[in-house]
Amino acid sequence: MSILVYIEHDEGTVKKSSLEAISYAHQLAQNQGEGDVAVIALGSVNESEWSAVGAAGASRIFHVTDPRLNAGIIQAHATVVAQAFEKSGAQIVVLAKSSLGDAVASRLSVKLEAGLVSNVVSLPDTSDGFKVRRSIYTGKAFADTAITTERKILAIKKNTVEIKTDGAAPNVEPFDVDIPENDFAAKITGTDKAEGDVLLPEADIVVSGGRGLKGPENWGILEELAKSLGAAVGCSKPVSDMGWRPHHEHVGQTGVKISPTLYIAIGISGAIQHLAGVNSSKYIVVINKDSEAPFFKAADYGIVGDAFEVVPKLTEAIKAI
Ligand code: FAD
């Protein structure tokens, strides 16, 4: 079985979630017997990334370097991926579940007349048809969904696949595409990214603060901890509502939904609406002075203590490593 993986990059570096998608595709191809994994990469992806892409399990790469594809113009991406699908001889498209991934997948589903399942958490059960398990209700339950179309699209939930690292070097194959001008009708005229900031939705580690930090003037200890870990900073809703932190840092049901490898919640009670946005994190660490705080029930590790004492000590210990 041949599988095509659509990968995303951040200024030339392939995203971790895309390497997970390649590793997923590799396992799926192996389980089905003979087959290979091809990757479609769009825009200015660094060629030095191909070794990681090959190590994750891809044997072929189609790279379309047109710089207009850097901006994530969704319509054009869907057009190119559909053409790569036909060229690769694949039966399945795999990609990472993300806002760009979902937007491309839905358009691709129409173009290829392919059944699409998003938020996939395990390999399909092919003993009787093609059934995939996906995460629903913000990770509280699973649904098994059968895809009955010949062509299939799977969007893989972040942090559910171990990245393979021992694959061989892939072949980079030339690929000419024909993108209608109309696909570029929407234009991104500029992006505003603060220097040095780690983007919250993509971050591998997030350090987040709640009302327990008492005021915006106390955010320094949290930022220091985030800096020592290379983490993004988040906050609870009341914190952004009160103007202590910008709204784009608010995580939860009504804010940004994140799936980092590590989520550190400081002075946050763990209300259900907050958990809805963070409970897909691989590991959750809670720092709260109230041992009865509901967040401890969702935590992998907990520290009962005053944030103003615990956090600086934690930062010091991390810096000493
Ligand atoms: P609190 O509930 O006040 O908790 C503060 C915590 O800090 C307490 O547990 C306390 O023990 C601890 N603390 C105090 N001092 C210290 C200290 N010195 N050291 C350590 N710990 C300390 N909330 C979100 O976060 N995201 C959402 O998306 C969201 N959406 C919502 C949608 C709806 C429709 C509604 C009704 C609510 C929503 N909320 C959301 C709000 C949510 O219900 C909670 O009110 C909110 O998450 C609580 O924020 P908090 O934990 O920062 O504050």
List the helices and strands and how they pair.
Layout: E1 3-6, E2 9-10, E3 13-14, H1 16-31, E4 37-42, H2 50-55, E5 60-64, H3 74-88, E6 92-96, H4 99-112, E7 115-120, E8 131-136, E9 141-146, E10 152-156, E11 171-173, E12 205-209, H5 219-229, E13 232-235, H6 237-241, E14 262-266, H7 272-278, E15 283-288, H8 295-298, E16 301-304, H9 307-320
Parallel strand pairs: 1-4, 1-6, 4-5, 5-11, 6-10, 7-10, 12-13, 12-14, 14-15, 15-16
Antiparallel strand pairs: 2-3, 8-9
Helix pairs in contact: 3-4, 5-9
Give a verbal description of the structure.
With 321 residues, the chain is of the alpha/beta class. The protein has helices spanning 16-31, 50-55, 74-88, 99-112, 219-229, 237-241, 272-278, 295-298, 307-320; strands at residues 3-6, 9-10, 13-14, 37-42, 60-64, 92-96, 115-120, 131-136, 141-146, 152-156, 171-173, 205-209, 232-235, 262-266, 283-288, 301-304. It has a seven-stranded parallel beta sheet, with helices on both faces. Strands 13-12-14-15-16 form a five-stranded parallel beta sheet. Strand 14, helix 7 (272-278) and strand 15 (283-288) form a beta-alpha-beta unit. It is globular and about 60 Å long. The termini are far apart. Flavin-adenine dinucleotide binds next to helix 6, helix 7, strand 15 and helix 9. The site of flavin-adenine dinucleotide has 26 residues, from helix 6, helix 7, strand 15 and helix 9. Belongs to the ETF alpha-subunit/FixB family. It holds the Pfam family ETF.
